[in-house]
Design brief:
single chain; SGNH_hydro_sf; about 250 residues; alpha/beta; GDSL Lipase/Acylhydrolase; SGNH_hydro; Rossmann fold; Iah1-like
């Protein structure tokens, strides 16, 4: 039994990533843990409320920890999922201008892919995920129900521009891209008010939304990085029947 540790899938993002293990949602982190069991471990590094500016030093710390830890498992798949908070309407402190958002995403990728980077990791496959569409009707109702009420902080078209920007970065950097916007939008009949089918508060995915995301992510991994699809990875540890046979 040569291997004593498993490599990992690191999920890096905002609350949509953090919620991937929320009880009752059957989120994408939960599903990944099931299909990659005994093959790759899942590290959920979701940061609720964070934008790409605030996430950058955390990302660097995550990579540094992997670099500095003796015999650290490799990050085989890295998902990066931001934009929902960066796209907030000014004067929200979460807002990051679109051009800087693009720059930040490219810096995340360069930390991993640039050979001159101290965190260079040729074994890591990167997947960018677009932010989902926002249902401003549902979001406003949620914010207005709070005490005290809060003004609307998202805009449908603005969030769409950040989703398009993620696709552009993926193309420019030649990394995989998961378009979660399109299937959710089309599944809602291209009616913002009907996005309640996939969103629980106008912003965060419900169980149906996470199911769409998971299926899209697995399809992209299979198409772009088939060598790390769960069907193509061996188990880290031998099956029990092999151990039983070895013991005679």
């Amino acid at each position: 039994m040569a291997a004593t540790i498993q490599d990992v899938i690191m999920l890096f993002g905002d609350s949509t990533t953090q919620g991937g293990w929320e009880p009752g949602l059957d989120g994408f982190a939960t599903r990944l843990s099931h299909v990659y069991a005994r093959k790759l471990d899942i590290l959920n590094r979701g940061l609720s409320g964070y934008n790409t500016d605030w996430a950058k030093p955390v990302f660097e710390r995550c990579l540094a920890a992997k670099r500095d830890q003796l015999n650290a498992p490799k990050i085989r798949i890295l998902t990066i999922w931001f934009g929902a908070n960066d796209a907030c309407i000014k004067p929200s402190p979460q807002h990051v201008p679109l051009d800087r958002f693009v720059t930040n995403l490219k810096e995340f990728i360069d930390m991993v892919q640039d050979e001159a980077s101290p965190y260079y990791s040729p074994a890591t496959r990167i997947v960018l995920i677009s932010p989902p569409p926002v249902n401003t009707h549902q979001r406003l109702a949620d914010l207005q129900s709070r005490d005290p009420p809060v003004a609307l902080d998202r805009d449908f078209r603005t969030t769409r521009s950040y989703a398009d920007a993620v696709k552009g970065v993926a193309h420019a950097k030649n990394v995989a891209f998961v378009d979660i916007w399109t299937p959710l939008w089309e599944g809602a009949g291209m009616r913002e008010s009907d996005l309640t089918k996939y969103l629980n508060d106008g912003l965060h995915l419900n169980a149906a939304g996470y199911e769409v995301l998971y299926e899209a992510l697995i399809n992209v991994i299979g198409e772009r990085y088939p060598e790390v699809h769960f069907d193509n990875l061996p188990s880290t540890f031998p099956p029990w029947v092999d151990i039983a046979n070895l013991k005679g």
